[in-house]
Amino acid sequence: MATRTPMDRKAALALVVDVQERLVPAMWNFAPVEKYCRALILASLEFGMPVFATEQYPKGLGPTIPALREILPGPPLVKMHFSCLADPGIAAALAATGRRQVLVAGVESHVCVLQTVRDLVARGYEAFVCADAVTSRFDEHRRVALEQMRDLGATITSVESVLFELLQVCATPEFKRVSQLVR
Fold first, then answer.
1. Residue 66: enclosing H or E segment and its boundaries?
2. Domain-embedded: residue 55
3. For the whole model, what pTM was predicted?
4. Residue 154 located in a structural domain
5. Residue 140 to residue 125: CA distance in whole angstroms
6. Contact between 101 and 36 (Cβ < 8 Å)
7. Does 155 map to a domain?
8. Lower Cβ count inside 10 Å, N or C end of the chain?
C-alpha cells in the first residue's frame, strides 16, 4: 500500500488554475467547484499558506471570476502555456516559496490542471488534487483526468479532507472559522 507525507501548512501552498469568466459557463457542475475553490483559498490564507491563481490567456478567456478574484492575496499569474509550470515566471514563484506540497484546484481538469499536475510531480512536488474543486466541460473528461493524475502519482482528495488534515485539531477558534467554509 502506498503512503504519503502528511499535509503540513508550513510545506503547502494552494494553486487555483484558470477559473475564468469565459470558461466557467461551459463547465460541468460548476457551483460546488466555486464553493470549494473559495473555501480552499480562504482556509489557506487562514493557515498562513501562499495562494496562487493563474489565468490562461485572459485577453481571450477573461479574468478570474469575481467570487475568487476578490479574496485572492494578489493578482493572478498570467500564462499562455497549458501547464502552469511550463511558464518560467509561475514555476519560479512556486519554487521561491520553498514549499513542496501543492493543493490544486481549477479548470479544465483534463487540460491545464492535468498538465500542471504532471509537471508538478515530475519536478518532485507532492500534488494534492481537490476533486471537488476541479471540473471540465464534461464529467467524463474530469473523471478520466482524475484517474490520469492519480496514475501520475498525485493524491486525489477533497477540499474538506485537506482542510481537516491541515487543521489537525477541533474545538479551536481556527477550527470554527475553517469548518464554516465547507458547510
1. helix 66-69
2. yes
3. 0.97
4. yes
5. 27
6. no
7. yes
8. N
